[in-house]
Amino acid sequence: MKNVKALAMLLLAAILGLAAAVYANNWVGQRSSVAANKVVVATVDIPAGSRLEPEMLTTIDWPASALPTGAVSDPAVLKARVVKLDVVRGEAVIDGKLAPVGTMGGLSAVIAEGKRAMTVRVNDVVGVAGFALPGNYVDILVHAQRDEGKGETKPISKTVLEHVLVLAVAQEAGRDDTKPKVVNAVTLELSLADSEKLDLARSIGTLSLALRNQSDEATVSTAGITRTELLGEPKAFKAAVRTAPARKRTAAPGHCVEVIEMPDGSSRLSCFN
Predict the structure, then answer these.
(1) Considering only CA atoms, which of 41, 44, 39, 40 is closest in space to residue 89?
(2) How would you write 122-190 as a 3-class SS string?
(3) Alpha carbon separation from 189 to 50, 105, 107, 142, 192 (Å, rounded)
(4) DSSP 3-state of 14
């Protein structure tokens, strides 16, 4: 009886093992029958502005049903091409991340069409304590003296440019670092008209950067603010002065001056010989 039970258990185990083997074989067959294409992927992290080299690339099988738009199958066609956006290790190198054919490497490959790169000097305060990193957006303020006419000037602070892309800090354009970097220069991406504004602004006053939210593209028009508006300084007192006959204090003639002080309307009388 014991032998019969043992044989039954062995037979059941064999049947289950055979069923598992058949299932696994079918599963492997289905996987191998899935259509696949060769796709070029990066073997290392490639920062924006870099020229592609053969050792940076390899090809892998990629399911045809999930092929990335603009994917490349032959590494040879990517020789000497420049990436305009960062590519991480294992990511497919697609046409949308490449600069036009013939583009030289470096920062110029990263600049958007119709834009310009312009560098301004900053310090640890103006540079938002090093938090204005490549890929961030900033507003630019200028502090200058506004001409009030008749040779008078007043200090004013005004936002002159909004939502400006930071292309590089110092000589670094990589966007994968989130650590603050205190540098002495920041390179910004601007339209030609905005480049002229920035050039004038830095020549007439001192610049400051204001870091803004990445997804906030709204612009706000302001008139700027002056010292009087900021501190709420009272208007200067006005004095009305008129002469009056002197009171008889001595035989010598004299004059009195009544000074009316504003704004409370109080007055005082000053007399002299």
Answers:
(1) 44
(2) CCCCCCHHHCCCCCCEEEEEEEEEEEEECCEEEEEEEEEEEEEEEEEECCECCCCCCCCCCCCEEEEEE
(3) 18, 17, 11, 18, 10
(4) helix
Contact 85, 48 (CB under 8 A): yes
3-state SS, residue 234? coil
Q: Helix H segments across the chain? A: 2-32, 192-204, 227-231
CATH number for 36-109: choose from 3.40.190.10, 3.90.850.10, 3.90.1210.10, 3.10.290.10. Answer: 3.90.1210.10
| Counts for the chain of helices (H) and strands (E), in that order | 3, 11
pLDDT digits (tens, 9 = 90+) for 75-113: 888 888 888 888 889 899 988 888 888 777 777 888 888
Separation CA 97–CA 92 (nearest Å): 10
Instruction: Give the CA-trace dihedral at 72, 76, 80, 83, to 10 degrees.
Output: 20
CB atoms < 10 A from the CB of 141, how many?
Answer: 20
Taking a C-beta distance cutoff of 8 angstroms, is the pair 64, 86 a contact? Answer: no
Distance CA 215, CA 114 (A): 22
Residue type, 55: E
Global pTM reads 0.60
The set of residues, in sequence order, having a beta carbon less than 8 Å from that of 239 and lying 6+ positions away, is 259, 260, 261, 262
Residues in the chain where the model's pLDDT stays below 50? 237-244, 246, 248-252
Domain-wise residue ranges, the chain:
1-33, 36-109, 116-231, 239-272
